[in-house]
Amino acid sequence: MNTVMPVLFWLAAIDAGKRSGFWATIFGGLAQLMMGNAVPGLVLGILIGKGVEESGWNRVTKVMMAAIILLFVLSGFFRGFDMKVLQSFQLVIPNWLDILHNTLSGK
Predict the structure, then answer these.
(1) Which of 1, 28, 81, 102 could form a disulfide with 41 if both were Cys (CB 3.0 to 4.6 A apart)?
(2) How far apart are CA 44 and CA 35, in angstroms?
């Protein structure tokens, strides 16, 4: 089930249109990297894509895009994704970033 659902949502996004497929692929890939599940990103990509296809880049779609980007940034930060990326490239994690994570996590 964990493999089938993201594939079905991705196929549905591609079938929904060019923009929906594009945004679903971008957000689904990011969600898979950060959260381990692509479905939330695929659904958000479908929402953005259909909103842009139907009414263009109006105020609602811009606010929705900003909210989704903020959601991904905060989710990645609180899951420690930024530190894992730095470690995967074998870079040194700055002390201020480590202190910030430890302070906000309560350690």
Answers:
(1) 28
(2) 14
Shortest CA distance to 51 belongs to which of 60, 40, 41? 60
State the burial class of residue 70 (Cβ atoms within 10 Å of its Cβ: 0-12, 13-18, 19+).
exposed
CA-closest candidate to residue 7, choices 33, 27, 28, 36: 28
Write the DSSP string, 48-64.
Answer: HHHHHHHH-S-HHHHHH
- pLDDT tens digits for range 39-56: 999 999 999 999 999 999
**Domain boundaries defined on the chain:** 4-77
CA distance 65 to 23: 10
Distant-in-sequence, close-in-space partners of 93: CB < 8 Å, separation ≥ 6? 83, 86, 87
Taking the model in full, what pTM does it have? 0.84
- What gap in Å lies between CA 83 and CA 66, rounded to an integer? 23
